[in-house]
Amino acid sequence: MSAKKIRRLVIKIGTKVLTSADKTLDRERIKEIAEQVSTLKDRGMDVMLVTSGAIGAGMSMLGFKKRPVKLEELQASASVGQNRLMHVYSESFRAKGYAAGQILLTQEDFNDRRRYLNIKYTIESLLKNKAVPIINENDTVSTEEIRCGDNDRLAALVADLCGADKLIILTDVDGLIGEDGKIVNVVSVFTPKVYKLARAVSCDMGTGGMATKLESAERVTQAGIECVIANGRKKGNIIKIIEGEDIGTTFKSASVKILARKRWIAFSSRPKGALHVDEGAKEALLSGNKSLLASGVLGSNGNFASGDVVKVVDKDSREIARGVVNYSSSEIAKIKGLKTGEFKALVARKGRDEVIHKDDLVILSAFAINT
Ligand code: GLU
C-alpha cells in the first residue's frame, strides 16, 4: 500500500520494545517513537497507539525481579506502571505539540455494542483534537474472564473498530523468520505452514509471542487491513514502513473481506461455552455452507444463553467454528442428538430449527483461534 493511501494507522508497541536491558522503561525509545508518530500526524495521518509496558514498568518500580504470578501483584504493577508509561508518552508528545489521551479497555467493552461505539467516538474525538489515543488493557481491573487476552489481540480489535488501513506490530525481532532463517518479507495467505514458523516464545515481562501476532495479523487482514510485524527497537522503522521500504513481514489484506458481523463472532466477542459435535456435523460444516442441527450435537460445556457466542468443537476438542447459538446450555442438554421435528415439544419456547444458523457461524482455521 502506498503512503498516500494510509489514512489511519494503528501501531502496537510491545513491552520488549519499551524496556531497557536493566528492565526499566526506555524513555529514549518512547521519545523516538513519539517523534515518528508526530511526523505522521503532521502529514495528516490518524495514528493510534496500543501500548504494552505498564506491567513491565511497574514491576521494576515495585522491585519485582521477574513477572509476578499473583493477579493482585500484576494489577499493582500495572497500576504503578501505567501511570509512569503515560507520563513518558505525554512528555514526548507534548514536546511535538500533541496531547496523549489514555484509553484503558477490557473485553467487556467489546462485548457490549453501546460501549463498543463509545470507544470509537472517544477515539474519533481525540483524533480530531490534536491528540494521540494511547490504548492499553485495563490491567488493574482485568481478571481472566474480562481480559482481552494480550495486546496483539487488543491492537487487532482496535484496528478493526476504528477502520484502520494498516496495523504495525512492533516487537524486538525483525519479523517472521522463515525455515531458511531469513525474514519472510510477504505473507499473502495464512496457512498452517505460516503458523508453524511461530514458535511460542514466552516473555518474562509481557504476554504474547509470534503466534498471537500471527493470529492478530490474520484477523485484521480478513477485515481488509494490511499488517506489518517489525522491529520497534530500530530507529525510524515506522516511517520507513509507511514510506514503502521493505521492513519486517507484511501480511497482505485478504481479497475477500469477512463481513463485520462474522468478524465480531469470530474474534471480538468472547465465547461463553462450547458445543461438541459428531463427525457428520463436522464434515457438513467444513465442507459446505451448512447450519448446525441438534442431531449432530453430542453435548456442551459452559453456561450459555440463547444468543451467546459459543465454540464448536470436534471429538478431539479442536475448535472448528464459532457461532451465535439459538438454544441455552440447559436446552442443549435436552435436545442434543435429536432430529429437528423431535425436539420442538421438549423446549418450552418456540425456537429456531437450527442450533446455529449458517449466517451466524464462522469456520475457523484450526490454527488461527485457540483461545
Ligand atoms: N497490558 C500489559 C501491559 O501493559 C501487556 C499485555 C501484553 O503485552 O500483551 O503491561
Descriptive account of the structure:
The structure is a single chain. This protein has 371 residues and is of the alpha/beta class. Helices cover 37% and strands 18% of the residues. The strands form two sheets. The chain has an eight-stranded mixed beta sheet, sandwiched between helices. A hairpin with a 5-residue loop joins strand 11 and strand 12. It is globular, with a radius of gyration of 22 Å. The C terminus is likely disordered. It binds glutamic acid (GLU). The site of glutamic acid has 14 residues, from helix 3 and strand 4.
Summarize the structure.
By secondary structure, the chain is α/β, with parallel strands linked by helices. It is built from 14 helices and 13 strands.
Topology:
Blueprint (H helix, E strand, L loop, with lengths): L7 E6 L1 H4 L8 H16 L3 E6 L2 H9 L8 H24 L4 E7 L1 H5 L1 H16 L2 E7 L13 H11 L4 E6 L14 E2 L4 H5 L13 H13 L3 E6 L5 H6 L6 E3 L8 H9 L4 E5 L1 H9 L9 E6 L6 E5 L5 E6 L4 H7 L4 H4 L17 E3 L8
Parallel strand pairs: 1-2, 1-5, 2-4, 3-4, 5-7, 6-8, 9-11
Antiparallel strand pairs: 7-8, 9-10, 11-12, 12-13
Helix pairs in contact: 2-4, 3-4, 7-9
The structure holds glutamic acid (GLU).
The site of glutamic acid has 14 residues, from helix 3 and strand 4.
Class computed from helices, strands and strand pairing: alpha/beta
Rounded Rg: 22 Å
Total helical segments: 14
E-strand count: 13
- CATH top level of the largest domain is Alpha Beta
* Spatial separation of the terminal alpha carbons: 31 Å
Q: What fold name goes in the CATH topology slot of the largest domain?
A: Carbamate kinase
Strand order of the largest sheet: 3-4-2-1-5-7-8-6
Give the topology string: H per helix, E per strand: EHHEHHEHHEHEEHHEHEHEHEEEHHE
Q: Major β-sheet, in short?
A: 8 strands, mixed
CATH architect. name of the largest domain: 3-Layer(aba) Sandwich
Give the overall pLDDT as a whole number: 89
Task: Kindly state the percentage of residues in helix.
Answer: 25-40%
The total number of structural domains is 2
Contiguous low-pLDDT stretches (5 residues minimum) are 200-204, 366-371
